């Protein structure tokens, strides 16, 4: 694709404010790619200068040119003597999305892309959707927090929803590997920063909205407006799947697309039959506008009922056969770091690793585990540094109210003092929120997990919350290897050895 063709895509969307029109139209040669980081520019790429939180990418345009950039797109005018075409646009982020879609030949129009947004449940819902499509013999890619699945290959995720050129590149790879669908987690950051503009969504799912990311969004209304954008982007006939049990759900019904609602507690288009819960999984009927189907799943707990309803609603609305929906739900063994049981039959205690890192997610986790615990509920968790501080005491309050033993530790402290973070969490554990529980504070996360498992008695459930699938810990400027699952299994092995030695 040439610069003239890409320039035409920008002009067609009315994004061009000014440029060197002659050079823009006369430029010849194939463009090699779309770049947004000047340090990663390679010869022949178009560099789009984005405004960041701390700097304007236009300041790095000369560096991009020195690295071989074929053209520059910016919200700022070109400095004197620039030797390549320079287009001035109203919105560089939107321009980046338009260019990416054009360069990769609109891959989302060659497959069914199901966008999933909400605070909690996105990852599990994406895995469920993918399992259903796979069971229907429609190969389904996945883009989300745990990883990017392209055909049979799984890559580590750099972020929940990558930047527009990366998203479109991944979708094009999926198409080339015969994927007919993609389950995509769509974060509020991605929606605010226009990373998914230019994608043609076949359906959109809203899971829920609870307090999170208030270090980025001005308030909860701003956070919700970001989520709403996904539904406003939908084609008129594309189903919008909305959780009516969430207080914000009703406000999305008229946001865009063809609304299909789901709920447990309210009248909705998709609802479950009687529910029962155990560590072995879930089994219940689901009533849909197309009829009733039977759910059997290895997933555990009420939050996963909502995730299953969301996935069933989307699949049914997209006319996936019921037998494939049922088979897909049965086939999913679990999701990494989502209520992941890491103990086994040899252990007298149950240890569960979960990604819960907001007060609502932690509450859901504890309320799911409580009826499944014959003994005490022991909770190990922390809060990330350089992120929303307001949720720290709220998470402390939830843990204090619902746990029997609490071990507060580090999450990813980043540049903050982990002791200070722990103290802010502890402030939420007041006499009116505290059970007859014991509270420990252990900064070292490995030691904290080990201590919790050591203190557990037969029948206790130990919950290790906050990091889930992550394989690292960010301390200061260092990213260090760390895996809650591996650390918990090591502690369980020590416990088994010690128990055997004392008999």
Question: What is the compact description of this entry?
Answer:
Helix content is 33%, strand content 21%.
Number of helices: 15
CATH superfamily of the largest domain: Mur-like, catalytic domain
Class of the largest domain, according to the CATH hierarchy?
Alpha Beta
The major pleated sheet works out as: 8 strands, mixed
Unreliably modeled segments: none
What coarse outline follows from CA principal-axis ratios? globular
Structural domain tally: 3
Instruction: Determine the oligomeric state from the structure.
Output: single chain
Number of DSSP-assigned strands: 24
Q: How large is the share of residues in beta strands?
A: 15-25%
Spatial separation of the terminal alpha carbons = 72 Å
User: What strand line-up does the widest sheet have?
Assistant: 9-8-7-10-6-11-12-13
What is the CATH topology descriptor of the largest domain? UDP-N-acetylmuramoyl-L-alanine:D-glutamate ligase
The name of the CATH architecture of the largest domain is: 3-Layer(aba) Sandwich
User: pLDDT average, as an integer?
Assistant: 93
Task: Please provide a written account of the structure.
The structure is a single chain. With 503 residues, the chain is α/β, with parallel strands linked by helices. The protein folds into three domains: 3-103, 3-Layer(aba) Sandwich (Udp-n-acetylmuramoylalanyl-d-glutamate--2,6- Diaminopimelate Ligase, Chain: A, domain 1), CATH 3.40.1390; 107-331, Mur-like, catalytic domain (UDP-N-acetylmuramoyl-L-alanine:D-glutamate ligase, 3-Layer(aba) Sandwich), CATH 3.40.1190.10; 340-502, Protein-Tyrosine Phosphatase, Chain A. The chain is built from 15 helices and 24 strands. The protein has an eight-stranded mixed sheet with strand order 9-8-7-10-6-11-12-13, sandwiched between helices. The chain has a six-stranded mixed sheet with strand order 17-18-22-19-20-21, sandwiched between helices. Strands 1-5-4-3-2 form a five-stranded mixed sheet. Helix 4 (92-103) runs parallel beside helix 6, helix 5 crosses helix 9 (302-317) and helix 14 runs parallel beside helix 15 (484-502). It is globular. 51% of the residues are buried.
